[in-house]
Amino acid sequence: MQVFFTLGFTVVFQHLFQTSEKRLMKHHWLQRSQLELYVALFVCFTVVLLRAFSFHLTGQVYWVLMNLHLITINYSAVMLESPFSFALVTVASAIVLASTGVLSSTIAWVIFAAVMLLLFFQHLRIRQFDQHPALYLIYPSILGALVWFGVTTIFGSQYYLTWPQTFMLMVSYTISIIAAMLYTLQVHHASQLNSKFARAAKYDRLTGFKNWNAFRNDIESRFSKIKSPTNLIIATFDIDHFKQINDQHGHLAGNQALIALTDNLSAFLATTDLTYSCYRTGGEEFTILFENSTLPQVQTLCHQWQQQVRELRVRYAQADIHLTVSIGLTQSRPHDRNATAAFQRADKNLYQSKNNGRDQLTTS
């Protein structure tokens, strides 16, 4: 039963996570806490639901539900990367456990804090296990066994928890957490099979530019590390009337236009001495991050490239396809709370360029 519950929880967890990623791409949100909010709320709901089922229960069934609680928290600690998500789940767990009377003593609170600190340590270090997936199975399994050993040693006689019961809980916990991790690794592996090359985890296959996931990680990292709040410049652009190209000439022509445009951009930027990174952040939408550049410098560069694009001809099936691009440009500011604020300002400027008749550059 515990294995089936764990797998069901894992399936819903991963589905919500993937759905949230799509919503973030659609709305151009970048914060990890925004990605994980619905998932964290689902974890809290599960913890509360387990507590509701455990009311007025005693004996083995009660401890099984506590085991499921521990599995839920441990799996979530591995999967959730945002400190806010982890804190939300920790608070929910403390409230639920306090309602059971388990945290009625100082030593109980100390043990709870120690367990959550271990989980938080795991939460911080687990990303380093990516090159060794087996560690995703080993570390959580060991942690669960240690928790049950400590609980039985200190509270076993008080709550009538015997060592044979503890052994069965340890076994059930280990099998369940391994099943959950194996399923998660399989989902992750399956998502990678859509790409021919391993680099596609960060790169768009069609254009060779980095993809949305890489962009989200890079802009957050650079935003937090820049020495000056104005050292990061964001340019977003997309192809004007791209849907008409697909409708009139077909999707292969649209792909050819994307390739021609990005090849042209790469060649153009290579002639400069600027530090930049290019990303495909939507279907026909792209973003460039410039570091240690001035806004007027990048603005002049964008105007020059727009003129070059106007002269570009994409030959497809005896037809010449003419392209123009609309661009939104901005610079990070001291009052920007996070990378999302700066990026959404650039994105707003892009749509202002489109509203102004397209083939425009808007800066703010």
Largest β sheet strand count, sense and barrel closure: 5 strands, mixed
Give the tally of β-strands: 7
Q: What's the mean pLDDT score?
A: 84
Judged by helices, strands and strand pairing, the structural class is alpha+beta
Instruction: Tell me what portion of residues adopts beta-strand conformation.
Output: 5-15%
C-alpha geometry: elongated
Q: Please state the CA-atom Rg, rounded to the nearest Å.
A: 26 Å
Biggest sheet strand line-up:
2-3-1-6-7
Query: How many structural domains does the protein architecture include?
Result: 2
Distance between the termini: 58 Å
Tally the helices: what do you get?
A: 12
User: Helix proportion of residues, in percent?
Assistant: 55-70%
Helix-strand sequence: HHHHHHHHEHHEEHEEEHE
Instruction: List segments where confidence is low: pLDDT < 50 over at least 5 consecutive residues.
Output: 195-199
